[in-house]
Amino acid sequence: MKIHDLHAIFLANPSISTDTRKIKENDIFFALKGENFNGNTYTQKALDNGASYVVIDEEKYVANNKTILVDNVLKTLQDLANYHRKKCKAQVISLTGSNGKTTTKELINAVLSTSYRTIATKGNLNNHIGVPLTLLTIKPDTEIAIVEMGANHLNEIEFLCEIAEPDFGYITNFGKAHLEGFGGVEGVIKGKSELYDYLISSNKSVFLNADDPIQLEKLKSFTKKYGFSTTQAKYYNIELINAQPFVNLKVEDIEINSNLIGTYNFTNCCAAIIIGKYFNIELPKIKHAIEKYIPDNNRSQIINTKGHYIILDAYNANPSSMKVALENFQTLDKPNKILILGDMFELGNSSHEEHQSIVDLTKRLNFEKVIFVGENFYRTTTNSLKMQSFADLNAYLKTNSISPKSTLLIKGSRGMALERVLDNI
């Protein structure tokens, strides 16, 4: 089937599913494959559950005229998304970076949705499957689509740009994330910069943090750039007032008091501001949108429980985000500071060095109590408490209660699922 014919079917049934457990009536089910599953085998179940059509790539699973046989289901999903993107009037803003992508995406959407009809990536659907699914949520009246792009190896952002064909782009930062896949920090910079490369070669527009020397260098000869800075007069100036604990900033004569913890969230707010300004949104609307945004899903959540003040930042972690989180936590004017830190994943040969570096940083910052959790932290050299597994941590907390009225930072990679520790605090 030609893509334009499939697109016509999609327009009549504009909802996609890749999971038969979540199918809604008249969804089109794309039978994707993974290491441990084959979506083709769920063809009949998808139809029984209400799917209008099922897209498959194994002929033996053809059931009736509601099954669409293609050469490759994943490629067809990606091609359909690109075709749909081309047919829509929406402008596409793509963003990537080592840290802060999802928070920045949510802030940008909060600001732009005050004046435009927008769609944005749901959760972290930011890979070779998530980006197409996001693009396929663009409606005929959508004006701006905010598309998050994640990557853990070179050429991935380049590929996602070919699907999304963004009109604008922003990179949050370049940090020590997915070092195993990128082969080191230089690989991270090169990989994330593929978004810039696409926009420059397409003569599109870039938003930038002009206080980031890497971004400045990458874009020094490119003219279609719109940036913010705390010091450089040629860019839009935004001032950080403080982060005790929430980011408080000033732009022009307006003060914005966010619900975001830490100075590292300052640039995330700035990105939303500069993009809002580019799209002619008035500052009072920008202020209201940022102040109304409250993080969730274990991203710098503030939890007050049993007299404790807890910063739950257990959605993810890498050496860069861990470092800024610890430095920010150290500056907070709060009593009885306790750290519960879980392993950081996908660091390859740098894993031991990076975990030891975090251990050493906690010692220099002189925290009252530190508990490290996970195989990687367990192999480090430290006088602080080390737990080899989450089960060990649970056992410890059942017999060793947290001091009353403590301030805790809980942070680790997603695979550690450290939010589970709340049950025992």
Automatic annotation (TrEMBL):
Annotated GO MF terms: ligase activity
Domain Mur ligase C-terminal intervals: 299-414
E.C. code: 6.3.2.10
Broad class of the protein's primary localization: cytoplasm
Occurrences of domain Mur ligase central (ranges): 96-275
A matching Pfam family: Mur_ligase
Domain (Mur ligase N-terminal catalytic) ranges: 16-83
Domain of life (superkingdom): Bacteria
Keyword tags: ATP-binding, Cell cycle, Cell division, Cell shape, Cell wall biogenesis/degradation, Cytoplasm, Ligase, Nucleotide-binding, Peptidoglycan synthesis
Pathway: Cell wall biogenesis; peptidoglycan biosynthesis
Binding site for ATP: 97-103
Enzyme class name: ligase
Family: Belongs to the MurCDEF family. MurF subfamily.
Entry function: Involved in cell wall formation. Catalyzes the final step in the synthesis of UDP-N-acetylmuramoyl-pentapeptide, the precursor of murein.
Listed name of the protein: UDP-N-acetylmuramoyl-tripeptide--D-alanyl-D-alanine ligase
Organism: Maribacter dokdonensis
Recorded name of the encoding gene: murF
